Backbone:
């Protein structure tokens, strides 16, 4: 499932989930390995991974008797696209606000034709 930017950002709003994503940035890991690096239980890590998976940020696969979790590049791309859209809108609104402000006399004299 591809991440929807807002849903993925909401999932990343939790500090434990942020830590999990940072751990997975180094490569696939099993739940026990992730839990060993965090001050939460394995069941809690599993619950956080379910939230991240539902948001499209991680995928999992069976590797023998273990399940390995890794970042989903499509989820990261969706978050990036979402933030880019928000940023583009914010910049466009800022540009419009600046361009619609009346210019002061000192600004106008600095930009006389023929300068």
Residues:
């Amino acid at each position: 499932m591809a991440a929807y930017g807002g849903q993925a950002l909401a999932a990343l709003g939790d500090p434990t989930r942020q830590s999990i994503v940072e751990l997975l940035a180094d490569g696939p890991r099993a739940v026990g390995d992730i839990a060993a690096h965090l001050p939460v239980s394995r069941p809690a890590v599993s619950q956080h991974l379910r939230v991240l998976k539902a948001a499209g940020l991680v995928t999992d696969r069976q590797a023998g008797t273990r399940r390995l979790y890794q970042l989903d590049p499509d989820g990261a791309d969706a978050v990036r696209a979402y933030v880019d859209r928000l940023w583009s809108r914010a910049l466009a609104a800022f540009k419009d606000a600046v361009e619609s402000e009346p210019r002061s006399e000192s600004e106008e004299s600095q930009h006389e034709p023929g300068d």
